[in-house]
Amino acid sequence: MSDAIDDIEEEEAFGISDKLVSDVMEAVDADADEVVEDLVDPLHPADVAHLIEQLDDKDRKEFLRVWPGGIEGEVISELDDNLREEVIDSLDEEELAEAVRDLDSDDVVDLIEDLDDEQTEAVLEALDDSDRALVEQALTYPEESAGRHMQVELVRGPEHWTVGDAIDFLRSDVELPEQFYHIILVDPRMKPVGYVTLGRILSSDRKTPLKELEEDSFRTFNVEQDVEEVAQAINHYHMITAPVVDDDDRLIGVITIDDAMAFLEEEAEEDILRLAGVGEGSLSDRVIETTKNRFPWLAVNLATAILASLVIAMFEETLSGLVALAILMPIVASMGGNAGTQSLTVAVRALATRDLTDANVWRVVRREVLVGLVNGIIFAVVMGAVGYFWFGNLTLAYVIGAAMVINLAVAGLAGTGVPIILEKLGIDPALASGAFVTTVTDVVGFFAFLGLAALWLL
Amino acid sequence: MSDAIDDIEEEEAFGISDKLVSDVMEAVDADADEVVEDLVDPLHPADVAHLIEQLDDKDRKEFLRVWPGGIEGEVISELDDNLREEVIDSLDEEELAEAVRDLDSDDVVDLIEDLDDEQTEAVLEALDDSDRALVEQALTYPEESAGRHMQVELVRGPEHWTVGDAIDFLRSDVELPEQFYHIILVDPRMKPVGYVTLGRILSSDRKTPLKELEEDSFRTFNVEQDVEEVAQAINHYHMITAPVVDDDDRLIGVITIDDAMAFLEEEAEEDILRLAGVGEGSLSDRVIETTKNRFPWLAVNLATAILASLVIAMFEETLSGLVALAILMPIVASMGGNAGTQSLTVAVRALATRDLTDANVWRVVRREVLVGLVNGIIFAVVMGAVGYFWFGNLTLAYVIGAAMVINLAVAGLAGTGVPIILEKLGIDPALASGAFVTTVTDVVGFFAFLGLAALWLL
């Protein structure tokens, strides 16, 4: 088992090895500060954060105690949200101040969002006056807005600049962002009008006007725009930098592709976990937190399962008449639940990626119902045959076949209809659709199967 | 309903409006070539592709017939894989040649992967000799490898260059990539040794050696490395350009962040769909294709549902003795299935993102089993009470309570254990875990509930 994992790791493109994690834990246990430092110092901040996430509670506390000089700001901003508080608590004031001073304003904002008031105060106090003003400004924009997540460090220039003007400006002692890939051209009212890649500037003559080097396609985003939308737009249009403007169309920041990428990854992750009813939470959560996170969805499921049982109870007499019904009925419900989940997952993702719109909604719903019908007919034949040979009862075979067709067609309808309706009502379809759809397929499955049995068999 | 959608659309950051889609369809129906051109010409290629995906079969054929001059290469490479063949078929040889000549070599490779032999031949013939050689070289690397997806257009320079050397080189009439953000420094054997962002070059004096401007962190990736790993590394380390090397460590290409982003989005999408047993396929597939795609998972589910029914059949006598058992038994199975899906989704994602490793595997499994136990006990009490008040049978309450605890703990174990074992066996856990886990929870749920009932009740 351990050999297989080693083989896999040799092919890995990034991250830290299990061996490194255990070496660090050993050194931490032995209180060998210097060994810990030698092992951890060469790592990229993202890897240090990953290492901290891999440690269990006890080891993590030990590691933070042994680690000399406190954790860097970049490591904190790479950490899982739910570990940040703990790590920040382990720093004294001076260490915290040093850590946050390294960070771009957008990273500080991101960090503050997960902290309690006292820690937020401590972080804000640790900043320079100008940085603090920027962070406080960003915090005035709505959560999940472009304004909250934009980087205010950017390079802009007037539209009339030439390549030479741009180079002279960049070579002057002006403060530049850590990373930048475009110069954004603005008009005298600070409204962005286009942008030029640094590659174009570098490969052109000093006298060339920047206007001539502008990219074909240029878009700006309002500061209150949902940041997920901006991130999807960055992906859709292959942008590297997305300029953010205020309500007067003035340039006030940018969202960069690496932040957009991390953001979309988190969103996809969230969707996956929501579809499974897991909600928030991470691998480093404790049993009690995890139990709390899982509980609500299970409670909803219990309620819907009881509802389904009430439907079964309506047919108590039918059931006592023929025990084969009790044996076969979970099959109809289970097939409906699976088919419904298939349709619903496709619909939820298509809504998220904007492939499902008013223009094609009826086509998609019709297709899913037809798919349910066709698969329903196939499985009706299969299951009818199985039922006949198992219990030697032809009518029973008709009953299960008919129930199968009905439930799979309903699964297609509910699987697409429920998320579409939830979306229109402003409820996240990834979060709530699953419970509704399986309730529908359970109820319809049991009702159709037992109801038809009551009509035809007894 | 339509008002709500309009409100949502006003906030959208990208894409095309439903109105545009219907305007285009109207113009297509009226054979109004010029109107179509006026509407579609200003769109970004990604939006044209999106428009084509929104049309149904008939409208799409009409659109491709009416659209003057044939589809651009960039539109084809933005299209859903399963529509590419159709669109390419609609082009004559000359149009196809023109379309593919616009594309970077990596986009041509990506396109060819989905075509049949005849179309591949046609595309290859349409290319210049040098481009064809590049594409054919890329096709020799394994599918899903960095070599297949890398862009060979890049800018490199010797380590001893100064800023001035770099600018002079870029201003010479050398052919440059459409987009580039770094100069990669190579040693005399073409081995990459570091890179410099264009921002650093532009803001430094001509005499500055590039060596002094190098980024701190620099990584290269082998040409046979899994491209998903490279994309995850790009996200993990916030890289913009990932250099790709051959087995002799010579620089042969780069993977850019925008491609990596699109790639990770597709992978997350695939994982979501696989977890739901949907498999390949897209919203524009026809009923028959969709039915085929959904069928295998439903067939597996039927087999496992029959297996569960066989377990129920073992307790035929117990069931005929007390109809309440038939009414309550789906609740135990359903709760186990949901709890198992929660654990399994967390485990599958944690495996994909490398948060679940040998270092913490036992901790995670133990946590999931404990979470199952705790939630099992809570729901045992609730369901025991419900069962008692419903059927007035205290022993029945104990039976369903005990079965609930057992099944939820087993769900935690199977939910983590199954994906971990599948991963070790080299099987994609997203694809196959669901069927195994719900089989386990169904079988254990029915067996525990009916078995305990047989022991204690009758």
Q: Would you give an account of this structure?
A:
The structure is a homodimer of 458-residue chains. Chain A has 458 residues and is mainly α. Helix content of chain A is 66%, strand content 6%. The first copy, chain A, has three domains: 143 residues, MgtE N-terminal fold (Alpha Horseshoe); 119 residues, CBS-domain; 170 residues, SLC41 divalent cation transporters, integral membrane domain (Tetracycline Repressor, domain 2, Orthogonal Bundle). In chain A, helix 2 packs antiparallel against helix 3 and helix 17 runs parallel beside helix 22. The radius of gyration of chain A is 29 Å and the shape is globular. Chain A starts with a helix and ends with a helix. Chains A and B meet through helix 1, helix 2, helix 4, helix 13 and helix 14 of A and helix 1, helix 2, helix 4, helix 13 and helix 14 of B. Chains A, B: Belongs to the SLC41A transporter family. Chains A, B: It is found in: Cell membrane; Membrane. Chains A, B: Keywords: CBS domain, Cell membrane, Magnesium, Membrane, Metal-binding, Transmembrane, Transmembrane helix, Transport. Chains A, B: It is a multi-pass membrane protein.
Structure summarized in a few sentences:
Two copies of one chain form a homodimer. Chain A is mainly α and 458 residues long.
